[in-house]
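Supplementary Methods S3. Complex input for the adenosine-5'-diphosphate-bound model.
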Amino acid sequence: ATPTALVVGTGRGAQLGILIKGPEVLESTRRVDTVVLDKTGTVTTGRMTLHEVYVAAGTDEKEVLRLAGAVEHASEHPVARAIALGAEERAGRLPGVAEFENVPGRGVRGRVEGRDVAVGRLAEYTAELPQELADAKDAAEKDGRTAVVVGWDGVARGVIAVADAVKETSARAVRELRALGLTPVLLTGDNRAVAEAVAREVGIDQVIAEVLPEDKVAAVRRLQAEGRTVAMVGDGVNDAAALATADLGLAMGTGTDAAIEAGDLTLVRGDLRVAADAIRLSRRTLATIK
Ligand code: ADP
Ligand code: MG
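Predicted complex, serialized as structure tokens:
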């Protein structure tokens, strides 16, 4: 490989909105045959909003919103932001939280007005969900919403449904990746029904859902063990290790610093179509060299 051609490749990358860690990155891009896409913030906008609130019989909806909103106020997660903001709009000023705890890929806990409140998919509340709440949760998830359980003092009290939209460019990006001969795979910690609804919308057949943050790496390794050469595109703190493990890591420039540091390439504008541009560019650059 002549270094000059590689340097030209990286310069062209900058024009396209691709930041490349080093010229050698273009080499590893060549053999990629599988593209793993994180869902939230990568295929979808990651800007979630609050939709439905379901409560158990005898429970006040505003109370569920206030207590859930109070705990989520302390978290940066897109689900948390949607709940805190929506709760404030619908139920007024949020009380303070003490003993806040974030459980990555699961949810949050904290003490609010003397109650032990939890929000998310924490086993202590999802394991024995009353039938009415379980049905509401299933229905919301079939509609592509992320549904989380709100409970306090050992009892599940409600379900809150949030959703974000698929990015305008995602379906086209998936088509372009396929046209390059790559197999797209959707990878997410979110519920399977939600993941499948999003996958359908953008044209992805292969879905790996309900994956804990620490297991995203294992999911990438499994694909590699099948003999695939894997590119991973992600934006979150929980994607960083998988980005580093993949043969090629592409970070969304709109995402977290952790993801950007772990990636080999950064898609500056957070447009998934640029992932296809990056692969096209590297193939062209390397063809010039040969
Ligand atoms: P993704 O892989 O889509 O970026 P995460 O791994 O961050 O998602 O989260 C997986 C799931 O864990 C969420 O869909 C949600 O059900 C739950 N969860 C995570 N953080 C929170 C939170 N702060 N509040 C409520 N639920 C949460
Ligand atoms: Mg994400």
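Residues 205 and 241 are 24 Å apart (CA to CA). Residues 49-163 form a domain with the Calcium-transporting ATPase, cytoplasmic domain N fold (CATH 3.40.1110.10).
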